[in-house]
Amino acid sequence: MFPRPIAQTSRATQVMYQVALPIALFLWLLPLIGIAVTSLRPPADLAQGNYFGMPSAIAFSNYADVFRNSDLARYILNSFALTIPVVIGAVGLSCLTGYALGIYKFRSNLLIFFLFVAGNFVPFQILMVPVRDLTYNMGLSDTTTGLALFHVAFQTGFCTLFMRNFIKALPFELIEAARVEGVSEVQIFWHIVLPLMRPAIAALSVLIFTFIWNDYFWATVLTTSREAQPITAGLNSLKGQWVASWHLFSAGSIIAALPPVAIFFLMQRHFIAGLTLGAVK
Amino acid sequence: MSTYWKANQRRLAPWLFLAPGMIMFAIYVIIPIFQSMWISFYDWDGLGEAVWIGTDNYVELADDPEFYTSFKNNIIWLVLYLLAVPAGLLIAIFLNQTVRGIRLYKSLFFFPFVISQVVVGLIFTWFYAPGFGPIYLLIEWVRASELRAFVASAVIYVICLVAFAIAAVLIVLLVRLLMTSRRALANFIAALAVIAFLNLVFGGSVLFGAIGQLAQQIGENPSVIVTWPVALWQSISTGVLGNGQGIAILADDRYVTYGIIAAGLWPQIAYVMILYLTGLNNVAPDQVEAARLDGAKGWRMLWYVILPQLRPATFIAVVVTVIGALRSFDLVSIMTAGGPYGSSRVLSYYMYEQALSEYGYRMGYGAAIAVVLFGIMMVFISGFIWKMWRDETER
């Protein structure tokens, strides 16, 4: 193990490490702690220039205000309406593509695989004009559907990389045995491989959820109205409404960050497996 | 039909499984890339008739000072963003222990990556705010004393040097990655690259004038990388060093890009950290023990025993960091919208501005910018794909 386990070092080092940990964490998260405190600060404090001292009271009312006098609730709903179908769509499609590329040997296999991988790395701007045009021509501009369709397609690239590597690591003998028994290819996928893919599906779902929830670029390109804009673009629109109201700003930011953070904590293990499994192999 | 299916099932099945995903991916990703290239030869406002103008967009681009500002900022992003790799490794080593509650600590350190860049941008905008932002107040405090200002200036200088060293190493790695089969040639080209790199950092050649300019933009007085001592002497003699004034980072064209990059580094370091934590988890314990018996420890242990084993993690960390740096859009858009006076634009943001904002719906010109950005990223993408392809076919 590297570095040397702290338990093998002197007593003084151990104590120092235990003290250093919370201090380092506090410094690291200072920006977040800052806005969390500000979001609970009564507006009067800010007006008096009390930005960093003790809040004179804890004002949960900021959160109520944020919902009362802005479209935040609507934006949050839009975000959910966007994110959940995209997760289902992208993960579903990539189960199929990952299976095809992980199990079958055919000549263009690697070529198609690397097309997915490379497509996943391209700058968004090279897709922007044609995708916006396409969405417009389908009559889907400024709709959640239009945005979701693009996200499903684009995320399929990353998901395929992930799923294919996962399936490749499964024991191939299982599939061969089933083939000898005369089980059809579709049934092998449905009854043998899919159940084994559960951990990968969980990991990928968490990952894609945060990716899509946090997307800002495509939200601004493909949606403009409050009926369709997700929370990231919505927050930016609210910037104008909340000029200098840092308490509302902070409360809004905390609310926007909450769903991915909650998902991350609930499914921590899957999330980290997801970030590393697809990539580091 | 059914007999045909039975006989050819195994040959046809992969294509059936692939079809939905491939069609979606082709429509929304592969084909638009070529469409963009095509559009870049037109003058088009997005609605009316598109007019073929050949390479005029590119000719205009070559003379567009805004384009060079964006390009220069992209290079600064790329170089400084790579600091996330050693920083992430450092935090990962710090956290790779087994004490009570360490799991929770690791998760909390990872936090910044989970929240949206929009929120990160808002937080840092507030931090930099003139008059009351904590960082503004900190700078005021540092600059109230000559000694503190001197130390801070030295620290910034060292960070810049480290950043450039890392970038030089990356260039060598990338070149060698692309040329592994011919080692002598690879090393020769790698050496050339480093020499060119050093030349442009210290001299500022024509080709990479952008980096020469970068060298002039760090610190209160310009030319920090090359002439830091001179600049420092000037600030002392003119009394700038200890004048105690704060700096409105996001409103000052000399600092704005660095301010945004600092905000971007925060989540990126968290990302790299988690990659290295998993990497450290997979380091073979017997090798570490053997090296320890041979007397290796500290830096030597890290360099000769640990880092070689962390190579896959390093590879992926460099990939996501390079791609992340070149894709930077959200923070620029949220924090400054490219300002002041376009000095914090990057190519991705400039493209967006040209094609979709109040500055005019110039789809063709925007597409041309996107094609250039795509070309730059393709250099890196092909390097990564090449390495992955080799790993894949060697197996």
Descriptive report:
Chain A has 15 helices and no strands. With 281 residues, chain A is mainly α. The model of chain A has no long low-confidence stretch (mean pLDDT 86). The longest helix of chain B has 38 residues, at 2-39. Mean pLDDT of chain B is 80; it is low at 202-224. Chain B has 395 residues and is mainly α. Helices cover 74% and strands 1% of the residues of chain B. In chain B, strand 1 and strand 2 form a beta hairpin. Chains A and B meet through helix 1, helix 2, helix 5, helix 6 and helix 7 of A and helix 1, helix 5, helix 6, helix 12 and helix 13 of B.
Number of helices of chain B: 18
| Contiguous runs where pLDDT drops below 50 for at least 5 residues of chain B | 202-224
- What is the strand tally of chain B? 2
Give the distance, in angstroms, between the N- and C-terminal Cα atoms of chain B: 38 Å
Proportion of residues in β-strands of chain B: under 5%
Helix content of chain B: over 70%
